[in-house]
Amino acid sequence: MRSPLLNKLSVIFGPRPPVSWLLLCFVSVLALIAVFGSSSSNSFDSVTSTPVPEIFTNYRRLKEQAAVDYFELRTILSGSSRQRELGLCGKERENYVPCYNVTANLISGFKDGEEFDRRCEVPRQGSWCLVRPPKGYKIPLRWPAGRDVIWSGNIKITKDQFLSSGGVTKRIMLLEENQIAFHPEDGLIFDGVKDYSRQIAEMLGLGSDSELFQAGVRTVLDIGCGFGSFGAHLVSLKLMTLCIAAYEATGSQVQLALERGLPAMIGNFISRQLPYPSLSFDMVHCAQCGIVWDKKEGIFLIEIDRLLKPGGYFVLTSPTSKPQGSSTSMKKRNMLTPLEQYTEKICWSLIAQQDDTFIWQKTADAHCYSSNKKNDVPLCKEGYDAPYYQALVPCITGTSRKRWIPIQNRSSSSDLSSAELEVHGKY
């Protein structure tokens, strides 16, 4: 019996198909095999051997091309026909800092400490060059090891200078071959750093300095930070501590702090504001920072008031300012009288005094300034927020900001509350 398919084919082509038709079918089958075979092979190859793009190589080429384009644009803008290569500065400019030139400031007539302020507008002569690092400079050690040990070649202090320094320096730092080791237990004024920090916490009514964070102290400005030991200890307590110190031509407190991995910057406010917005810090600390706070009608205290958040603290430790006299009450009255006159004007309260350390607290009541009967320190104009490095102003600012939130109202956790998130970064 023949199948139905063969019966149909026999009807169409007859009982015996022509040879040409058979050849055509055979060629068609071969063509289909070749097409499907090549497509399946290509798809298999695409799955098994997909080429990996050279991402790093392409990125490096783009980076190199961007650098070439930048130099070409700079050459065109400068009008020079060829690129100018910068050489290395001389050794005398090893500690050069832009906008800080005491000699040029003195020639321009600045004095009484104003020559140490940042002044970019003062003309100065000098060739363009790359400031070289100190000879033998090494990459600082990683935190936390670098907090207590730095390379002696990275800072401007020689072995002879170290040996000829006072006893306090030798107690704080130990010079060993090419390293300087800091002793956290020693060093701030008379007591150790930890004891000093614990003393401040107890003066605030806390059990220990580990409770400072929960009490609302998160950011601290340390003026004249010395060797940075106090800031290093506060950082270990998860407090953001910023060191700020005046410009020094040879060696620097700021350089020491940076080598230890601590936030630090050069800053001086003899005549100009510090480069921070209003209401930036929870605590401002000064331990023998060399500032006469009752000078210039208390304008330095007004600047600290600008930086402090409502309810923030100003900690002053200054044994050199201890008055002379036989009566203890007379000593205290003589010392506090100049400062009390100015702190009362800016609505500060002296909340604690122990030995040579005094703590004032800024008011959390914004109406305190306007309700002052004497009105010795007026409020700044509405919306006043001068740019950084502007002249110091004898007026109170920050009272109309949305960020006027007492630090005591903060949540005790590390996360910001909804109210804090609403005003974070806004004025």
TrEMBL record:
Domain of life: Eukaryota
GO molecular function: methyltransferase activity
Compartments, as annotated in UniProt: Endomembrane system; Membrane
EC number: 2.1.1.-
Assigned keywords, A-Z: Glycoprotein, Membrane, Methyltransferase, Signal-anchor, Transferase, Transmembrane, Transmembrane helix
GO BP, sorted A to Z: methylation
One Pfam family it belongs to: Methyltransf_29
Membrane topology note: Single-pass membrane protein; Single-pass type II membrane protein
Any single GO CC term annotated in Swiss-Prot or TrEMBL for this entry: cytoplasm
Family: Belongs to the methyltransferase superfamily.
Name by which UniProt lists this protein: Methyltransferase
